[in-house]
Design a protein that fits this description.
Length: about 450
Amino acid sequence: MFSEMSITIARARDTCAAVAFLFNRTMLQRLFERIESKTDELVALTRELIRFPTVNPPGDAYLPCAEHVGRRLAARGFTVEYLRAEGTPGDTDRYPRWNVIARIEGSRPGPCVHFNSHIDVVEAGSGWSVDPFEGTVRDGRVYGRGACDMKGGLAASIIATEAYIETFPDFSGAIEISGTADEESGGFGGVAWLAGRGYFSPPRVDHVIIPEPLNKDRICLGHRGVWWGEIETKGRIAHGSMPFLGDCAVRHMGAVIEAFERELFPALQPRRTTHPVVPEGAKRSTMNINAIHGGQSDDWTGLPAPNVPDSCRMVIDRRFIPEESLEGVKAEIGAILERLKASRPGFDYSVSDIMAFEPTLTKRDAPVVTAVAEGIRSLFGREPDYILSPGTYDQKHVARIGKLYDCIAYGPGILDLAHQPDEWVGIDDMVDSAKVMALAINRLLTGKALR
Ligand SMILES: [Zn+2]
């Protein structure tokens, strides 16, 4: 009797498991089919976004581009907000810094997944074989400025979200999609400004995915730190025929460069992170001398006046690894300048910050990381690559201002193509990454995987 009953229970359990498996399987297939059926729409949307010349600087066409995203999502039941970051760098009536945030609530309360894309692009530059603002489709690719960085990613996240809510109309929690300004110039009129107003913090938002072009099978956990500084050497103006009566600030700057070559660059070279920064060269601590200016300004016409320059300014772009600190990076350069001051007659200097951010790093076991990793595993049948970006992006603002540490970059496109002529994004890559994004939404909202 007992054994018969246990057999029946076991059979019933097997049947339940089989039904659950079939249901899951079907829902996964339905979700993927729905995304695939939207391929033409995905391409069309990417092209539409590329056609807004949202070039930054100066920060053009932000509002029509934001409205294009907002109108589309409002028609699908999203609540849409347009927010101008008034008073932020570059914001004028001619070039207002507009952002769009769209949110849809599920049928039950739950966590919120947010997809954040910047809508600005860098200038087209020369060397294009197609119109950079046309969105030409050729050989399975969409070409145009911003195709991979990152209007293709924005379009993929929109299609992923739409397919998800059509497949699971009864979903719980909330999904947000934002198109934000000024990432290319530091993000101050975009994510930084919004984060300062609570748009990137719990309880409003729990998980953030930034679809930057890091390849469809890689998860970007964060980025190196950056310090942009300006060093000024000081001199004394005098007649150029009698330089001994003055003090040449450019020669003092020459001594700074020499000291950097002798002490700083050799010290940076062996400093290597254990984190998976790509490309390989960016695993080391680096510094670029961005600009030097001393003496007569370079916009003069006619002949120069014979002056000994009393000021020389150098802009440095120091990128540092997670094992270093901003404080240590500044102190290292400060010590070199102090040694010069002690040893070189007449040497005087000042240092000022232009911009500084500590390295940003999301933990590998953070929910958004495991959710996207599961999506990559499910679609491609292999482990994702975990990487760190050599340069910064808006994740820093989500972490340092929003205090939200469950944030990564994940999106279609090849990083090396960003800012290049003939930038493109692969249509298959956009479709695949939309599938991974939809799987991640499901995992983060339900706590369960679709297999
Ligand atoms: Zn970008």
